[in-house]
Amino acid sequence: MPVSQTFTPIVSNGVSSRASRKGSIWSEVRGLESERFVNEGLALALSKYYMLRAENDADFQDGAVKNIWRIARRLTSCISPRERNVGDASVENLDVLIVGRIGTKVSIATNIIQCAVVQKFRLFSRRDVSSEKVVDDKLLEDAIVCVISNTNFLEVFNERFGFNYCFEGPVVEQVICSELIFRYLIVGCQILKSEDFWYPSKQQDIETLFRPSSRSTYYDSWRYPKLKELSEKVLTEK
What is the mean pLDDT of each run of 10 residues along the chain (238 residues)? Predict the structure, then answer.
């Protein structure tokens, strides 16, 4: 997604004298290594993980997941204040931290939610038993708010479930809430288990969420059943 925005570049402190002579052009090129491009790397890493898992469900692809976590940490370091995990420091909303086109915000937020889902799946599978979370609850909450605020999620939800989703924040609705975004967002709400967001509380809710739909990629035939399976596990989680 082309973006015109002000970024805080991920750059080293040292710049060669040759680079310095390039002035603003060099700065602009270096500045492109930012949220959007790191996010594209995360999207590719997630796609590779899904593809490999779809080819061999018995292989949990630990190496591919380590790569996802590495890029996810890099992405969150781009969009989060350094004080995120320091004491009681306040954390601004993800929607404010990402400056740029709404499509980019939604893409980043959706990938963060997907990381939270993979994280939860691996916790259930006892692949990652560390208490450290790549996506903490606050970041997951910010990602959920970002998606709801910038897509037509509320409209899609009403059509699917037959009642209005209670959301008090501002809504821009400039991005279409695809089936992928819709499903991952609601399962993200399930994982978060916050009173501020509706999430499935019975099996019928899950069946409604995962009603048959067209696939966008060939590995959706593996991914969506696994996502539904995770949703059912979270439903019965104590």
Answer: 33 34 36 73 97 94 95 84 38 53 89 97 80 86 94 96 93 89 98 96 97 78 95 93
Closest CA to 186 of 206, 171, 202, 170: 206
Type of residue found at 38? V
Across 209-220, b (16+ Cβ under 10 Å) vs e yields bbeeeeeeeebb
- SS3 percent helix, strand, coil of the chain, rounded to 5, is 60, 0, 40
Tokens of 4: 């015109």
Rama region for 100: left / alpha / beta (φ>0; ψ in -120 to 50; rest): left
Contacts with 148 (C-beta within 8 Å, 6 or more apart), sequence order: 154, 165, 167, 169, 171, 185
